[in-house]
Amino acid sequence: MAYARPAATAAEVQSAARAAHAHEFVERLPLGYDTVVGERGIKLSGGQRQRVAIARAILKDPAVLILDEATSSLDTESERLIEDALARLLVGRTMLIIAHRLSTVQRADRLLVIDRGRIVEEGTHGELLGVGGLYVRLYQRQFREGVVEVGGGGLEDPLG
Question: Distance between the two ends of the chain, CA-based, in angstroms?
């Protein structure tokens, strides 16, 4: 994790790992934070790799962060943990999030819906739900049950 900021203290690395929900699984690795991972070391799951990447981003503390499909190919629990970590990471910075999973971007200040390389809709999650366009169709496809959980634990009907 310290690749992001080699001069970081152990406490700073652990703090970033906790914020990214990575600390618990890192502690269980054979050598904890000193375990070598990757091709020559321990293999991590997709969710674990994503959480390590988020911890590195937290440690680096960039003004602008670009995330490309940060929650793709993850199980529900890993996705929930990563979305929570991303919410913490978002504070005080500009993030460009590229995502097909709409749950990843629902809390964004501004959403751009791109179809065939063109911006076709723009607004907040709530505004786009009110338009009844492509975003709503994508949203309905992903949340077929008709009622989904949104920030704060409330329920929302995708059709308003």
Answer: 42
